[in-house]
Design a protein that fits this description.
Chain lengths: 203, 215
């Protein structure tokens, strides 16, 4: 129940994109076409579900203060948490590469569907953001997995909705200076407002 | 020593490299890079300023480092090398902030770490530092960093003023106005306020410099 609550919360209420502003760059660049946004959304869900638990393991058994205790008592006081950023970004880059190779080998159809979006994900702040939030909020392993997956789902929802709205807006006559980025930002603001009505929902 | 290395530091070309990203090729509003952090930290002016300075520092020093070693980096692994350089700079900035501005660093929370994936930094490294000498690279980094900081400061200023009636923590909207029925706009402190303010800022800027984006 608690996990379900966390999932609902991170899909709707504190949506990774609309409330925490993570992954905006790819959101703005790729929400122009619906098919592309579905591909990007799926790739983010996929990668987040894998990288979040892996980063948790890294943090728990390598980086945290006293995490290296399994190596022996003399490592009890080692605190590598200042290395967090460099470790996480390396893990993410490596995982993305690995996922790409595995998908290519076992499911060429999925590989073509995700296309160029897989490698682009390394520099998507949503992925690193989820890993860092997970450390800051001290989630357990199960919570981290659910958090990763549902954050990805929230991203998917937001980017596909935005692509649909932008498709419609193409037929409207927008003020020249507001075309493109400007109107998209304002629309995102309205979308974020719409998502805010979910706040306070508890299961 | 080739001839070009002797050009004065403040030559016209360097000045142009520095000035252009402040308005015409602003990383945030024209190139659409690094939006994530720009929105998240701007609910008050102070964290926005600190974030602007932090990003500028990271861009300048990563630009410089990559530019110095640009001929040694094998092309195939350049992204990894760049990421390592950026991550190192970010760790340094993070540690300095924790030591000298602990409150603000708590407020910025994970967004200092997210400078690593800030597209501006990687974008400048790829687009400029890899192909240019160290000194122009510094100017390019400074220009882009300040262009970013400038937008951040304006958005932070508007959100703090309309959202809580304060600037840098000082009350500027007088009490008499509140007595007359004026209310702080709570929406400004929340996510939608950030999006809408940035949208309006882009509108104003593009009206002024006449840039039009066609789909």
């Amino acid at each position: 129940m608690e996990l379900l609550n966390l999932a609902i919360n991170s899909i709707f209420v504190s949506n990774i994109l609309l409330a925490s502003f993570l992954g905006m760059c790819s959101f703005l660049a790729i929400s122009k076409r619906i098919s592309a946004s579905i591909g990007m959304g799926a790739a983010v869900v996929f990668v987040l579900t894998i990288t979040a638990p892996v980063s948790w393991l890294m943090n728990e058994y390598i980086l945290k203060e006293g995490a290296l205790v399994w190596l022996g008592d003399s490592f009890k006081n080692v605190d590598l948490s200042f290395m967090t950023y460099i470790f996480f970004i390396a893990v993410i880059a490596a995982m993305v590469q690995l996922v790409e190779m595995i998908v290519e080998k076992f499911s060429p159809a999925l590989y073509t569907a995700l296309g160029i979006f897989l490698p682009l994900i390394t520099v998507n702040c949503a992925i690193l953001g989820v890993a860092l939030f997970m450390v800051e909020r001290k989630y357990t392993f199960a919570q981290t997995t659910v958090f990763g997956f549902s954050s990805g789902l929230g991203y998917f929802l937001a980017i596909v909705t935005m692509a649909a709205i932008r498709k419609k807006i193409r037929y409207s006559n927008v003020v020249p200076a507001l075309r493109g980025l400007g109107i998209t930002m304002i629309l995102t603001g309205l979308l974020a407002m719409a998502f805010m009505i979910f706040s306070g929902i508890q299961l | 020593m080739s001839v070009s290395e002797k050009e004065p530091i403040l030559s016209a070309k360097n000045r142009k490299t520095f000035k252009q990203p402040l308005n015409e090729t602003n990383p945030l509003t024209i190139q659409v890079l690094g939006i994530c952090s720009a929105l998240a930290v701007t609910s008050q002016l102070k964290p926005s300023l600190v974030m602007g300075i932090a990003v500028t520092t990271v861009i300048v020093f990563s630009n410089l480092t990559v530019s110095v070693i640009r001929n040694l980096i094998p092309n195939k692994i350049r992204i990894i090398v760049e990421m390592t350089v950026v991550a190192t700079m970010v760790i340094l900035v993070d540690q300095i902030l924790k030591a000298y501005a602990y409150e603000v660093s708590k407020q910025l929370s994970i967004f200092v770490g997210l400078i690593i994936t800030n597209c501006i930094v990687l974008g400048r490294l790829e687009a400029f530092a890899l192909g240019n000498k160290p000194i122009p690279s510094i100017f390019d980094g400074l220009g882009n960093g300040l262009g970013y900081a400038f937008v951040l400061a304006i958005v932070g200023f508007c959100r703090e003023l309309f959202g809580s009636g304060k600037i840098l923590g000082f009350q500027v909207v007088p009490q008499s106005l509140y007595d007359a029925g004026y209310l702080n706009n709570g929406l400004m402190m929340l996510a939608p306020g950030a999006f809408i303010i940035l949208g309006l800022f882009i509108w104003v800027q593009r009206t002024l410099n006449g840039y039009v984006e066609e789909d």
